[in-house]
Amino acid sequence: MSLALVHSRARAGVNAPPVRIEVMLTGGLPHTQIVGLPAAAVRESRDRVRAALICSQFEFPQRRITINLAPADLPKEGGRFDLAIALGILAASDQIDRQLLAQHEFLGELALTGELRGVDGVLPAAIAAAEQGRSLVIATANGSEAALARHADVRVARTLLEVCAGLAGGNLPPAVPTEVAAATIADLRDVRGQQHARRALEVAAAGSHHLLLLGSPGCGKTLLASRLPGILPEATEHEALQTATIASCSGSGIDTARWRQRPYRAPHHTASAVALVGGGSSPRPGEISLAHNGVLFLDELPEWSRHALEVLREPLELGHVIVARAARSEAFPARFQLVAAMNPCPCGWAGDRSGRCRCSQDSIQRYRGRISGPLLDRIDLHVDVPRLEPRALRDDAPPGEDSATVRARVIAARQRQLDRSGKPNAQLLPGELSEHCRLTSQDQQLLEDAVERLQLSARSMHRILRVARTIADLDGSGAIATAHVAEAIGYRQLDRGGS
């Protein structure tokens, strides 16, 4: 009887729980059995590993082989354990020194030729391996992704033979990070006119507020939304690592050359609720998690299914989503900034100066009623985007400020918020509003009158306070003034009680 132990990592949501692979060789008829809750792809690794060992000029033991993937109650999926299983068999049969495996963890799928293929979820595995004081050995194809975890010791190889030779010689090459490319983000200078909407976009960026753009077709709603990432502060290394970890586990892959740029996700309005929040039998992150620390743009908001929109309620408030299934549940981070766009009526021309709209008031109300009051309540800024006059679109018309100029003001305002409370204003808790959003008695009365006139909820009132605090920060003001409160109230005119 001979036993070998090898360390590896599973994928569970955005985490990489440890898996200990125990390989035992005993007497009896040749047979290979894998236990420990393996999925079909894991059970099939018996044949992949056998072919890879033979093609790599190793001997496949003609004995009874029992492979246990511990812990037994954790589901194991995919081909990520192939490399660890192969090394366990080699160590148990004394073809390699089993002591070489103790300080390493192994991830990788094996081709029949012994070539090492990449798998998903490598970045969280690299972070977790570093926390345990072990190095991670992976396929060369995953090297640039795992190298984003700069404190981790990540080693790469192209084949099973290279892994064995590198372990014996202690010379497995380290993963090399990809050089980060210069940001190429659409510029706000491209937006002509629309001063009110540009101002709202700046306020939203400064305080990380959610934004709804309402206007006729072709007025520039999508153009404005696509310029938001260019005026946001650059993601910190911690934020970028969080975002990259989610992308790694989603299977969509990471563009390592652009990993410090905030994500911008714009799913089609036919996307399902599961596509938005994540799910599946083995839960994977959805669009709201892929937009973590970035922007989620939902165009044609009333055209989305009611169910898909309603699942956004809790993530908008909490910054995370828990996907529960019968067998397991996973928590995914979802601290995104929502930007939504919609037309004012079914034909799209209500309120336009051309007067072409022929929609009845009932049809307009039904159309806007597709968006529930509770969801609209959670959007801080509601902004009308009117159709521009033709002369504003001329080539010789003066352009607006570019993204760099606006971004400098946004960064300064955001820094004031971080220095004051350690978070953007949009994330201030109700208990923190009295400390950071104090109003004079006159301004408090102004706010209360507006809440009563527009029939706003307590949540909307708190969001007005947060927006007013952001406007004051953009002005460099330590106190919230009457003008700041009035402007913040103006951004709620499209709410349920608005005219």
Keywords:
single chain; about 500 residues; alpha/beta; Ribosomal Protein S5, domain 2; Rossmann fold; 3 domains; five-stranded parallel sheet; 18 strands; elongated
Q: Explain this structure to me?
A:
The radius of gyration is 28 Å and the shape is elongated. 45% of the residues are buried. A hairpin with a 4-residue loop joins strand 12 and strand 13 (284-285). It has three domains: 2-169, Ribosomal Protein S5, domain 2; 188-424, 3-Layer(aba) Sandwich (Rossmann fold), CATH 3.40.50.300; 428-499, no CATH class. It is 36% helix and 16% strand. The chain is of the alpha/beta class and 499 residues long.
Describe the secondary-structure layout.
Layout: E1 2-9, E2 18-26, E3 31-35, H1 40-43, H2 45-55, E4 64-70, H3 82-92, E5 104-106, E6 109-110, E7 116-117, H4 122-131, E8 135-139, H5 143-146, E9 154-157, H6 160-169, H7 195-207, E10 211-214, H8 221-226, H9 237-250, E11 264-265, H10 273-277, E12 278-279, E13 284-285, H11 287-290, E14 295-298, H12 306-310, H13 313-318, E15 320-324, E16 329-333, E17 337-342, H14 361-368, H15 373-377, E18 381-384, H16 403-421, H17 430-436, H18 441-454, H19 458-474, H20 482-490
Helix pairs in contact: 2-3, 7-16, 7-19, 18-20, 19-20
